[in-house]
Amino acid sequence: MTVERRNITFSSGHASCAGWFFLPAERAANVPLPAVAMAHGMGAVKEMYLEQFARRFAEAGVAALLFDYRGFGASDGAPRHKIAPRDQMEDYRSALTWLSLREEIDAERLGIWGTSFSGGHVLHVGAYDPRVKAVVSQVGAMDLYANARQVMSPEQFAAFQKLAVDERLRRDGECGEVYIANALPPGEGPAMQVDRETYDWLIQAQATVAPSWVNEVAVSSFEAILEHAPAKSIERVSPRPLLMILATEDQWTPPGLIRDAYERALEPKRLLEISGGHYAVYEGEGAELAGAAAADWFVEHLAAG
């Protein structure tokens, strides 16, 4: 099926978020479609290998709105590259509002899809926004404090906390933001993510599909990141159907934390385990399995009937 992609913007807070709206090019006139809102992970932008998922959903008859958070990518908003979980979850809700006002969309059949950092966001939004009728969380960040304690050494975690405290002290007397790299290889300086695999994935994406991505993050993000624990609300997602996808060798969103959260979730639910590390779900067989499962989930719970 041919898919139409439109460039759109929608308001969220005091910013304008930019997105791609995917629709089946061949669709019945005057028959509104189900739709999902989608966004990326920590500091990433929509061009980073997510279009394949959005197109797959549209090919299955489920429209998709893939967007950049305020302050990132093609969206406006200041400060730039500040990761604020509450603002980003509000951007999801604003995307749902935009969808619900489209004549092509059935406002009673809306879903949300998230990956990595946003794979946690969708649990919180799905738990509290009654417009959501189905949720897919892919390699999601369940509890960022617990996550950090697992993936960082004690020395790295202490340094991360110190950066957050030092930034709070600095902001008491100075204005503006201080930035460090989003990702660097080990031993190459301070960064939010010190990991060769993450750095290589992000730089490769920047060089090939996402030239708008900037390798920086505001240090003022760190406190809010560590306090973000969206899986604490996972029991409240029900009765909305929840699909969770994990990567068995994931070093950044540990599969144990996802399995624990899944056990607390109520029915209806499904857990899909994909072999590989965190980035296996974006390319190759892992992306094929994750995309097919998500599309089937949305078709079953949003489009069927």
Description:
It contains nine helices and eleven strands. With 305 residues, it is an alpha/beta fold. The strands form two sheets. An eight-stranded mixed sheet has the order 1-2-4-3-5-6-10-11, with helices on both faces. The chain has a three-stranded mixed sheet with strand order 8-7-9.
What keywords describe this structure?
single chain; alpha/beta; 9 helices; 8-stranded mixed β-sheet; 305 residues; 11 strands
Total strand segments:
11
Helix content bin: 25-40%
Biggest beta sheet attributes: 8 strands, mixed
Number of structurally distinct domains = 1
Tally the helices: what do you get?
A: 9
Q: What CATH first level would be assigned?
A: Alpha Beta
Identify the overall geometry. globular
Radius of gyration based on Cα positions: 18 Å
**End-to-end separation:** 20 Å
CATH topology: Rossmann fold
Quick check: average pLDDT?
Answer: 95
